[in-house]
Amino acid sequence: MKKSLSLLILIVALTGCNSYSYKDATSEGHVVTGPAGQENIDKLELFYQKFLKHEEDKIRIVHFTDEGDPVYLDLDSNGEQIKFSRDNSDDKFGGQSKGRKRTTCNQIIKKTGQRGESQGTEYDLKDCTSDIGYSDVTNKEYFLIFIENEEN
């Protein structure tokens, strides 16, 4: 009985230690998006403005899946280019190509308009050195985030 209880406690402790939550990402100051909403989105606009002024900056965007798994997007700009990495290692339903992939991009673009049935602003990376799984294969773009207008 003691062995069973000890094993159960160990399993619960180990699985509980590996969870990274929406609250964790928000409190660390990351741009966060997922079923629970969006937080710290102003940091992405600030990153965008700094890139246009050729200033250095870096941010992390954490996308939470419907199941609550984090997917990390890291953007590190020297003012001329953006080193971009996408890490879906913690996505339990991420498929066979899970892991961290990297490329370098020359543009971050901001589009305002319709996406599906929502009106808002979308940020994408473009003009990248390699294909690490384009979101938009035709335009060779990586989707970062869509921010829905508040009146929608």
Explain the overall architecture:
The protein is an alpha+beta fold and 152 residues long. It has three helices and eight strands. The chain has helices at residues 2-17, 22-27, 42-52; strands spanning 31-34, 37-39, 57-64, 70-77, 82-87, 100-115, 118-128, 141-148. It is globular, with a radius of gyration of 18 Å. 20% of the residues are buried.
Summarize the structure.
The protein is of the alpha+beta class. The protein has three helices and eight strands. The longest helix is centred in the first third of the chain and has 16 residues, at 2-17.
Radius of gyration based on Cα positions: 18 Å
Main sheet attributes: strand count, strand direction, barrel closure: 8 strands, mixed
Number of helices: 3
Count of strand segments:
8
Beta strand %: 35-45%
User: Order of strands across the biggest sheet?
Assistant: 2-1-3-4-5-6-7-8
Name the overall outline.
globular
Low-confidence stretches: 4-17
Terminal residue distance: 56 Å
Q: What structural class do the secondary elements suggest?
A: alpha+beta
What is the residue-averaged pLDDT?
A: 87
Helix content: 10-25%
SSE topology string:
HHEEHEEEEEE
